[in-house]
Design a protein that fits this description.
Helices cover about 35% and strands about 25% of the residues. It is α/β, with parallel strands linked by helices. Strand 2 and strand 3 (about 60-65) form a beta hairpin.
Length: about 180
């Protein structure tokens, strides 16, 4: 995070989660690219940038670091996102295992990063509800236990994505502004 008296001009957010949950598609939707139904799995990481306006009128650069979700790339992913301000942890609402693995990801975040701001994204809400494998009550309980803000998202329809990244960016920005005043 920024030191006292240093203005925050860039906010870095790492995207974590199992493979094929839609992290890359979420990043593409956020920066305005068209949805691609077939995407190649990310190897290593990709960087996405977009300028956003804060409530005080200042423009900041939001950098999204999209990491590979496969287990063999996890240590590299955490090295890549070591200096992030926040994490968007993503699961696939239609894939139970990806939700069950959220706790594993949270433990790895705790072990590898210095207390970043966290949000949880349940992706693929555009799919029919009869395909959903995770109940809202389970998500609510996890968020209550872990003190997470949850955003249901659809990369395909660009639902919930701007709200999620606006929320986490403004939360981080406010923390830094408060720290500057101390």
């Amino acid at each position: 995070m920024a030191e006292n008296n240093i203005e925050l001009k860039t906010i870095k957010i790492g995207l974590l989660g199992d493979g094929h949950v839609g992290k890359s598609a979420i990043c593409n939707a956020f920066i305005g690219l068209e949805f691609a139904s077939e995407m190649v799995a990310t190897i290593g990481f990709e960087k996405f940038e977009k300028k956003i306006l804060m409530d005080d009128g200042k423009e900041i650069k939001l950098v999204l670091l999209d990491t590979a979700g496969q287990e063999r790339f996890r240590s590299a992913a955490f090295k890549t996102i070591r200096s992030v301000h926040g994490i968007a942890l993503v699961f696939d609402i239609c894939d139970r295992k990806t939700f069950d693995n959220v706790n594993l990801w949270l433990n790895e975040i705790k072990d590898n990063l210095d207390n970043p701001c966290l949000i949880l994204l349940g992706n693929k809400i555009d799919l029919p509800e009869d395909q959903w494998k995770v109940k809202q009550e389970e998500i609510d309980e996890l968020c209550k236990q872990k003190k997470l803000e949850y955003f249901p998202t659809s990369a395909k329809n660009n639902e919930g994505i701007n709200e999620a990244f606006t929320y986490i960016s403004k939360t981080i920005y406010k923390k830094v502004e408060i720290k500057k005043q101390d």
